[in-house]
Amino acid sequence: MSDQRRISAASGAPLLRVRGVSVTYGVQRSIADILARRPGGAIVALDDVDLDVDAGEIVAVVGESGSGKTTLARVITGLIKAESGVVEVEGEGPNDWRSVGMVFQDPYETLDPKRTLGEFVAEGLEAQGLPMDRIDASLEAAELRPASAYRDRVPEELSGGQRQRAVIAGALALNPKLVIADEPVSMLDVSMRAQILALIERLRREQGIAWLFITHDLSLAWAISDRVVVLYLGAVLEEGTAEQVLRNPSHPYTRALLAALPSTDPRAAGTHSLAAGEIPQGAAPSGCRFRNRCAHAVEACASARPPLEAAPSGAAGHRVACFRAAELPAAASVARHAPGGATPSGGA
Amino acid sequence: MSGAANHNDARSLPAGANAAAPLLEIRALRVSFSLEDGRRLTAVDGINLSVSPGEAIGIAGESGSGKSTAASAIMGLLPPNGRIDSGSIRYRGLDLVAEGAPLRRTRWREIAVVFQGSLVALNPVIKVRDQVAEAIELRLGEPANAAREKAKRLLADVGIPDKRLEAYPHQLSGGQRQRAMLAVALSCSPAVLIGDEPTTALDVIVQAQILELLDRMRHEYGLGLILITHDLAVIADMCDRVAIMYGGRIVESGSVREVFTNPRHPYTQALLGAAPDARAGRRTIKVLEGQPPDLASLPPGCHFAPRCPLADARCTEEDPPTVSYEDRVTLACHRYEPNGGALPAPVAAPYPVLELGKR
Description:
The complex is a heterodimer.
Chain A: H1 3-10, E1 16-26, H2 31-35, E2 42-53, E3 58-62, H3 69-76, E4 84-89, E5 100-103, H4 117-128, H5 135-141, H6 160-173, E6 178-182, H7 190-207, E7 210-215, H8 218-224, E8 227-232, E9 235-241, H9 242-247, H10 252-260, H11 300-303, E10 309-310, E11 319-320
Parallel strand pairs in A: 3-7, 3-8, 5-6, 6-7
Antiparallel strand pairs in A: 1-2, 1-4, 8-9, 9-11, 10-11
Helix pairs in contact in A: 4-5, 4-6, 5-6, 6-7
Chain B: H1 2-9, E1 24-34, E2 40-51, E3 56-60, H2 67-75, E4 82-91, E5 94-95, H3 96-99, H4 104-110, E6 111-114, H5 118-121, H6 128-140, H7 144-157, H8 174-186, E7 192-196, H9 204-221, E8 224-229, H10 232-238, E9 241-246, E10 249-255, H11 256-261, H12 266-274, E11 284-286, H13 313-317, E12 323-325, E13 329-331, E14 353-355
Parallel strand pairs in B: 3-8, 3-9, 6-7, 7-8
Antiparallel strand pairs in B: 1-2, 1-4, 4-5, 9-10, 10-13, 11-14, 12-13
Helix pairs in contact in B: 6-7, 7-8, 8-9
């Protein structure tokens, strides 16, 4: 844990406090593995993760599939129990939370296809012993207006974006201070995404709701969040404000993610795969988890796990887990080139 | 690349095709589906498209735009309740619509496709090398040994290491499966490759690797590439030209540079502005209100009119004609006058702009 975090904790505990959380999964062995008598191992899904979300703050956790980001969401929402570590909201453990909402990628993980939206919201209110007069206000706060037009509808009668609004309405009914949103817009069309982003931003501004926004999409993280945490094979490789991490990235992995991102802006066009291979499906390598894909890896990177330390930018709160961060050229000089087809040709 | 160089020389065209005719040309294509209640739904409503050897065309749109139906129609893969009502799909002058089903096999040889979910497209119980070899044997009639050798070369070319040749699809990573799928698609040396959201399920770094590979293959093999995706940034990266679809129609098309720098159709403007962009450092997004169109009950006139900030009475009554400007851009929007064919200045549609990240 960093000094800065201790200081901020001393001046007032964060709303969400995650400390040293680790989760290990047993590996499923295939029949071939069993026949070959290959032992089943364990995969570390999360390894000693620290994370804070302050009141009214939007924090994005970005990572590829296999990074552990969904495991983290499930630990924080209490769906998975961590082997070690602490998860607290307002200083309380998961059993005492009244103020945490959840939004998943697929609205049908939350919505019952046979129940109307009114019944869905009422169910949550009843479970928490809250008054039923909050149903309409919750639907309207999620921009399902007028509530009378939506209360008696079932999920099938809604568009994808409206279904996700219904899930958000269910969360809002419980007066949350924090909503954990795991890829909340990745199933939606781009015009629907913009509407939901606008809603998330408005709920933060008007009701002070904090969001932990989990996504594989760096551009969403950039747009919506105050702070960004980059997760890779269960560990935090870089964290800081959205500006620090995504405009001045320090870790070679963060740089590779950004360089690989296509853009419609001609000034930023051209993807470049700076990192080789793919995120390993088995155990993480020794030393730095990213070293076997990293263009900058040296021998030292194999010997020990680099700790999460102050980034070379020197900016408060910007931390990176890379032995070579200080030696690497500034992010702005990271080479960008376009593959052959990227140069737009005038011919139509 | 020697393999690539003789690729097109060795091609024998199907009967009725003409090497001098355009590679692939789609004219006034209409595709409809029958619904359970007896109604018909028009999913593709009179689109024109063409692709030349070595050229990459992007087709972009959201749900209900008709982009995937257009791809299925070109591939001859429409579901049983779908049919081509009118129009033509000409491969080297040969009309695939008029010729009908017998050409389906030829189509796989000349026009190949890579889908989003390679796990469903690959046979789970056959090793990857055998899948590629089988495709070569079946479709090109090559002897088994030669097919296996060719499969090995192809898989090496798409970046599958030798030690993975005998792997089953589930033993490969997502990126490797998409590479294997590309090898299957390229196995019969097609002239046209259609990618239907080929990288949508992949993580961003693997997506960049596969896009680089697709781009290399297009240039080496002189492929005509049709890339269908909801992601305009992928099209910006990969394509020469782009067609933007909405409600079954192409609302704007032209060179990627022209359309992305000076978007004219209000829907193109919305689509380009709707996604934030970390690479370019843009947080402002344009908010397009309303829902994607329901193809079963499209409004009269311009299909986009109900969501368009520039729409007036004419837009809700008359279909906008598709006008070609200076052979560079086509537009279907009443806001732009035919102008004698001179490319008009873009008219900015006043969408609400959301400035995210302003604390």
